[in-house]
């Protein structure tokens, strides 16, 4: 008779095997270099000048170099594996084992257009048991606004994914229209396949970007210039540089003068998805909750119910989709949802002046072009995905 294992036990077992395999690979990786040094030492004739030069190089390197390389290596490994929290960063006593993230794989039919009907609504149901402990406790479960997973706040704390400030955010927003994204959906980098992730890592290494560090405006623009020249073999135009500066401001909503690493990584991840995958493949990444919000948004914009909206309304949808919650805004009787665009006739559309300033006014040419439901989804799918993180940053700034 077989032994039944819970999902958590299975994950722990897989992680132990992964650690053993990683250690074995690291050992194999170190052996050739040692063997090459021994062979070089036995065959090369050493001179006094070479010995002095090597001694000076070792002295100039200093004792901190191995430590720095080890720290950098660990940061690159966390980036490759999609780990947001490293076990060494918090006390392991009374902690659950963090999950082993498995990157998705592209399927043969991914590029084919998915069947997402406007008339056929989807029934959105949350899971009944906590994703971590697999226990049902009714009202104390906090749902994710993107997927169907639910969590206990205590389980999230024991996983290390819920700290002091974020714990308040989860309890206050998880059951509201604002919503809260779980640690799977909050990390846009987990949408990348292994091949796409290695492509991004090569770009970051080529541009001398250090993982888990903040980027200033100069760093961000320098990176964008290098990426553009690498891709198109020509310098970035002035208009493109201005757009990059606007994107930096969108990633720095608090005007701190720098952008956090996870916001930069989310922005680069969604940019890479747009570059490497067709829109049909991106549409397959949408969850049932996101598709339902898109339906509600389109129907709200389609005032005459003819199945078409103006291009200007579609542009406004891009600018207002998942508008980040303004914490300083006082509560009122009208519930202002930030999970989808609103029509001008909606009672919630009379928001703050700051929000209206960011939304471009449509031109007559834009209003002349009409957009149906399939095109609305294709043109907005990247902004729907970019709205998943809990951060106040706008990870994909629509063009002005």
UniProtKB/TrEMBL annotation:
<keyword id="KW-0862">Zinc</keyword>
<feature type="compositionally biased region" description="Basic and acidic residues">
    <location>
        <begin position="75"/>
        <end position="94"/>
    </location>
</feature>
<feature type="compositionally biased region" description="Polar residues">
    <location>
        <begin position="62"/>
        <end position="73"/>
    </location>
</feature>
<protein>
    <submittedName>
        <fullName>PHF24 protein</fullName>
    </submittedName>
</protein>
<dbReference type="GO" id="GO:0003714">
    <property type="term" value="F:transcription corepressor activity"/>
</dbReference>
<feature type="region of interest" description="Disordered">
    <location>
        <begin position="28"/>
        <end position="113"/>
    </location>
</feature>
<dbReference type="GO" id="GO:0005737">
    <property type="term" value="C:cytoplasm"/>
</dbReference>
<keyword id="KW-0479">Metal-binding</keyword>
<dbReference type="InterPro" id="IPR011011">
    <property type="entry name" value="Znf_FYVE_PHD"/>
</dbReference>
<dbReference type="InterPro" id="IPR013083">
    <property type="entry name" value="Znf_RING/FYVE/PHD"/>
</dbReference>
<feature type="region of interest" description="Disordered">
    <location>
        <begin position="332"/>
        <end position="372"/>
    </location>
</feature>
<feature type="compositionally biased region" description="Basic and acidic residues">
    <location>
        <begin position="28"/>
        <end position="39"/>
    </location>
</feature>
<feature type="compositionally biased region" description="Low complexity">
    <location>
        <begin position="340"/>
        <end position="354"/>
    </location>
</feature>
<dbReference type="Pfam" id="PF16744">
    <property type="entry name" value="zf-RING_15"/>
</dbReference>
<dbReference type="GO" id="GO:0005509">
    <property type="term" value="F:calcium ion binding"/>
</dbReference>
<dbReference type="InterPro" id="IPR002048">
    <property type="entry name" value="EF_hand_dom"/>
</dbReference>
<dbReference type="InterPro" id="IPR019786">
    <property type="entry name" value="Zinc_finger_PHD-type_CS"/>
</dbReference>
<dbReference type="GO" id="GO:0008270">
    <property type="term" value="F:zinc ion binding"/>
</dbReference>
<keyword id="KW-0863">Zinc-finger</keyword>
<dbReference type="GO" id="GO:0005634">
    <property type="term" value="C:nucleus"/>
</dbReference>
<dbReference type="InterPro" id="IPR011992">
    <property type="entry name" value="EF-hand-dom_pair"/>
</dbReference>
<dbReference type="InterPro" id="IPR031946">
    <property type="entry name" value="KIAA1045_Zf_RING"/>
</dbReference>
<feature type="domain" description="EF-hand">
    <location>
        <begin position="289"/>
        <end position="324"/>
    </location>
</feature>
């Amino acid at each position: 008779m077989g032994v039944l294992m819970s999902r958590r036990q299975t994950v722990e077992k897989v992680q132990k095997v992964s650690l053993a395999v990683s250690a074995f690979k690291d050992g194999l990786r170190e052996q050739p270099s040692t063997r090459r040094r021994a062979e070089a030492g036995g065959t090369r004739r050493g001179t006094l000048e070479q010995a002095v030069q090597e001694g000076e190089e070792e002295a100039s390197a200093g004792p901190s170099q191995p430590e720095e390389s080890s720290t950098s290596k660990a940061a690159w490994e966390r980036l490759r594996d999609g780990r947001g929290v490293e076990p060494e960063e918090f006390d392991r006593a009374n902690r659950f084992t963090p999950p082993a993230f498995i990157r998705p794989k592209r399927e043969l039919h991914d590029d084919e257009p998915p069947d997402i009907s406007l008339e056929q609504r989807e029934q959105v149901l949350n899971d009944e048991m906590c994703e971590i402990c697999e226990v049902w406790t009714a009202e104390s479960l906090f749902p994710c606004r993107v997927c169907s997973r639910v969590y206990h706040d205590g389980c999230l704390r024991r996983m290390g994914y819920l700290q002091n400030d974020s714990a308040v955010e989860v309890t206050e927003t998880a059951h509201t229209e604002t919503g809260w994204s779980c640690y799977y959906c909050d990390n846009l980098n987990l949408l990348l396949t292994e091949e796409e992730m290695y492509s991004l890592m090569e770009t970051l290494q080529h541009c001398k970007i250090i993982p888990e560090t903040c980027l200033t405006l100069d760093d961000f623009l320098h990176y964008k210039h290098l990426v553009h020249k690498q891709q198109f073999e020509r310098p970035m135009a002035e208009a493109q540089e201005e757009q990059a500066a606007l994107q930096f401001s969108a990633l720095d909503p608090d005007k701190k003068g720098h952008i956090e690493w996870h916001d930069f990584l989310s922005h680069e991840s969604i940019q890479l998805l747009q570059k490497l995958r067709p829109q049909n493949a991106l549409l397959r990444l949408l969850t049932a909750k996101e598709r339902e919000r898109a339906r509600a948004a389109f129907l709200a914009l389609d005032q005459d119910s003819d199945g078409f909206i103006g291009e200007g309304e579609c542009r406004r949808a891009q600018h207002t989709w998942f508008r980040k919650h303004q914490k300083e805004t006082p509560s009122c009787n009208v519930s202002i949802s930030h999970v989808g665009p609103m029509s001008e006739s909606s009672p919630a559309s009379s928001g703050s002046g700051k929000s209206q300033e960011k939304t471009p006014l449509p031109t007559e040419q834009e209003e002349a072009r009409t957009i149906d439901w399939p095109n609305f989804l294709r043109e907005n799918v990247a902004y729907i995905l970019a709205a998943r993180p809990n951060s106040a940053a706008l990870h994909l700034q629509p063009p002005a």
